[in-house]
Amino acid sequence: MHIPETMRAMVLETACTPLICKELPVPKPNPDQVLVKVRACGVCRTDLHVVDGELTDPKLPIIPGHEIVGAVVLAGENVDAFHAGDRIGIPWLGYTCGKCLFCRTGRENLCDQPKFTGYTLDGGYAEYAVADRRYCFSVPESYSDAEAAPLLCAGLIGYRSYRLAGDNIEKLGIYGFGGAAHIIAQIAIYQGKKVYAFTRPGDTSARKFALRLGAVWAGDSTDMPPELLDAAIIFAPVGSLVPAALRATVKGGTVVCGGIHMSDIPSFPYNILWEERVIRAVANLTRKDAEELLAIAPKVPVKTEVEVFPLSQANDALSRLREGKLQGAAVLILD
Question: Residue 161 needs a FRET pair 20 to 30 A away by CA distance; which of 8, 20, 143, 177 works?
């Protein structure tokens, strides 16, 4: 398979500035990596946090993007699970040390020396990308490249958040109805749960979207649901939603903060936390999360709603996400 010497890439040189289209050398994989020709890359809210300077320690310049679907074109000498032509997905967590306490105890998502695709490792807003063989996954055949891309972060982080919300829940609230929410809502409904969708005030389009997917109720994030929730997941990066979600949950309920960045949580009275309510955050993902999500998604089947953009319009896609003008997920498509 012919591999060119250079590639197009959208590059962030300085936080809070637009991405710049550049011609760069095609990266070369090390013995534990694969080189992938990118076919699609989702545009995630975490990308927006990187571009807008809310995640403060990126490698700069950096090629963003961590919902990558592509074809292997070259495998390092230590790679035996993937071969040229295989379609794979590459997520946010791109490397772990394998040696720290967290890695040794099945909590690789909390590794002491992690690397992240599109943040500390160059990502998928480019024609080619390299990835650690351990953090690559086969993509279900039933999904097109664009449809599969949101599963690689919105789906994975959403699934981990959903799993940590608890096993014995019947009524699940979801705050912020975007890329992650629209995937997890379908899984929850498939598993017999009642989903209550909370959107930014006045966003009637998002409420209609949630109801179309099967939510039993949809309202503003400032509203109380018609009945108390067993658990709630907050995908919107808005700290004031934490006390709102606590007020909406039953005794012993769990509120999961599913984002990598959130504005400050305001003080709140102890009585809305009392009675063994729990607040917890989700960090990154594990390979088990990926394996489980990619196995269950085709069974539901999860249908991802995507709006596609060419690579050159990455800045437009980020702007639409920033302004809340997307329904579902934005995906960059590469020829």
Answer: 143
Q: For residues 156 and 91, is the Cβ–Cβ distance under 8 A?
A: yes
- Regarding whether 145 and 19 lie in a shared domain, the answer is yes
2: pLDDT confidence band, cut at 50, 70 and 90?
Answer: confident
* Per-residue exposure over 249-283, b if at least 16 CB sit within 10 Å of its own CB, e if not: beeebbbbbbbbebeeeeeeeeebeeeebbeeebe
Q: Coil, strand or helix: which one is 72?
A: strand
Domain boundary (242, 266, 281) is at 281
Please give the structure tokens belonging to residue 261: 């960045």
Query: What six digits make up the tokens of 259?
Result: 């984002």
CATH (domain of 67): 3.90.180.10
In this predicted model, what pLDDT tens digit does every residue of 39-85 receive, in sequence order? 999 999 899 999 999 988 899 999 999 999 999 999 999 999 999 99
The answer to whether residue 235 scores a pLDDT higher than 80 is: yes
Q: Give CA angle at 229 (225, 232), nearest 5°.
A: 100
Domain range enclosing 169: 156-281
The pLDDT of residue 1 is above 80: no
Structure tokens at 191: 């598993």
Q: Is residue 290 part of a domain?
A: no
Give Cβ neighbours of residue 141 (< 8 Å, ≥ 6 apart): none
Q: How many folded domains does the chain comprise?
A: 2
Q: Are residues 175 and 75 both part of a single domain?
A: no
Residues 93, 87 contacting (CB under 8 angstroms): no
| 216 C-beta neighbours (distance < 10 Å), count | 16
- Residue 203 belongs to a domain: yes
298 lies in some domain = no
